[in-house]
Write a structure and sequence with these properties.
The protein is 43% helix and 12% strand. By secondary structure, the chain is α/β, with parallel strands linked by helices. It folds into 2 domains: 4-46 and 301-393, Aspartate Aminotransferase, domain 1, CATH 3.90.1150; 49-295, Type I PLP-dependent aspartate aminotransferase-like (Major domain) (Aspartate Aminotransferase, domain 2, 3-Layer(aba) Sandwich). The strands form 3 sheets. Strands 2-8-7-6-5-3-4 form a 7-stranded mixed beta sheet, sandwiched between helices. The radius of gyration is 21 Å and the shape is globular.
């Protein structure tokens, strides 16, 4: 009855679905406060007050026929202008408004871009571990995802990148700050990636796009700087959203921005506008676009996430769990103290801790913890993590 490819997706996601179901059961049985759910990267910090005020004013004042009809597929022109100005500051290059497409979240941006540039048989390269949906997005258009390993600190293996690129490589996809590791790529790392791509372009019929997926750009700690991308390489494109910085993950509002140095950039922008429509998005939610016109420079208090990060780091240290300190996003990706990912997730679950196994991100031997939870939950999980470690030492 189903597309065979989708059948395999159901099989791949069955463990995660089972975990979420089990989490609901545990919360019902033991009480929500006694279950330590670190599985979801779902922002729980309330949206900034400016967002609430803007939405209240818009819904109170909007004439329905004017405010809620269709708009251009690429977004409200005035929002494109404001986004372009903001992105020009971030990426240290003049981004024209027509190079910005407002999308249904970063996922909508990536899919609209892939639909515009990928052909069946093409390859998308990314670094492991990686956000699992990347593979699905590439396969939507007959392409396939290829992964490049990273070192012990989850930084890209540049030599491996060079060896992985083939004549079918169309996109190199980076994500910084990174899900699931929390790594922030330095400008030096970015330059080395660009250097490899540029050297390979001379051997290829089509240039390789550098796609930066960066919904966590604002979430960097310890003085880490997230370098600009659009000024680094002519064939660079940025996908992002307001899911994290405004805590609006469910409202599906984001954008795709194209480097002004890209040859035929206007043609690509026009193509993305069309694919934004024909994929069924039509245009990004209009109410959210109008809200952004009033709140584009707002964001949640990132110090709250840093406090949670530091608290969870202390909990993991006391439990004897090895990890690399995340300098961005809101995830830890600690080492699995057992050889088997599924077994370790079951051990944690016995202590009512919910986590995601590393193989779900293409890297067995680790597990992901999201600190989109209250500090109380983090502190209360302390003994549960310690009990889990004692279970496997006996």
């Amino acid at each position: 009855m189903l597309n065979p490819q989708v059948e395999t997706y159901l099989e791949k996601s069955s463990l995660i679905r089972k975990m979420f179901t089990e989490g609901a059961r545990l919360k019902k049985e033991y009480g929500k406060e006694n279950v330590y759910d670190f599985s979801l990267g779902n922002p729980d910090i309330p949206a900034p007050e400016e967002v609430h005020k803007a939405l209240h004013n818009l819904t109170a004042e909007s004439p329905l026929s004017y405010e809620h009809g269709y708009c251009p597929n690429a977004g409200l022109p005035e929002l494109q202008e404001k986004l372009a100005k903001k992105l020009s500051d971030i990426h240290q290059v003049k981004v024209p408004a027509q190079h910005v497409t407002v999308t249904s979240g970063a996922a909508g941006a990536v899919n609209a871009f892939f639909r515009a540039v990928l052909c069946p048989g093409d390859e998308v390269i990314t670094f492991s571990p990686y956000f699992v949906e990347y593979g699905f997005y590439a396969e939507n258009y007959g392409a396939r995802l290829k992964t490049v390993p990273t070192d012990d600190d989850f930084l890209p293996d540049i030599d491996a990148l060079e060896k992985t690129i083939t004549e079918r490589t169309r996109v190199c996809l980076i994500n910084s700050p990174h899900n699931p590791t929390g790594v922030v790529y330095s400008e030096e790392v970015l330059r080395r990636i660009v250097a490899v791509i540029e050297s390979k372009n001379s051997q290829l019929d089509k240039p390789i796009f550098l796609l930066s997926d960066e919904p966590y750009r604002f979430l960097a700690y310890d003085g880490k700087k997230v370098p600009p991308v659009l000024n680094q390489y002519p064939y660079s494109v940025v996908a992002s959203s307001f899911s994290k910085d405004l805590s609006l993950a469910g409202e599906r509002i984001g954008y795709l921005a194209i480097s002004p140095y890209l040859p035929d950039a206007e043609k690509l922008a026009g193509a993305v506008s069309i694919t934004n429509r024909i994929l069924g998005f039509v245009n990004a939610p209009l109410l959210m676009q109008r809200m952004l016109l009033k709140t584009l420079n707002s964001q949640v208090d990132i110090s709250l996430y840093k406090k949670r990060r530091d608290a969870l780091a202390e909990v993991l240290c006391q439990a004897g769990i090895e990890f690399t300190m995340p300098h961005g996003a809101f995830y830890f990706f600690p080492k699995n103290p057992l050889n088997d990912d599924s077994e370790w997730i079951e051990v944690l679950k016995r202590e009512r801790i919910l986590a995601v196994p590393g193989f779900a991100f293409g890297t067995p031997g680790y597990f992901r913890l999201s600190f989109c939870v209250s500090e109380e939950t983090i502190h209360n999980s302390r003994e549960a993590f310690q009990r889990a470690m004692k279970r496997i030492s006996n």
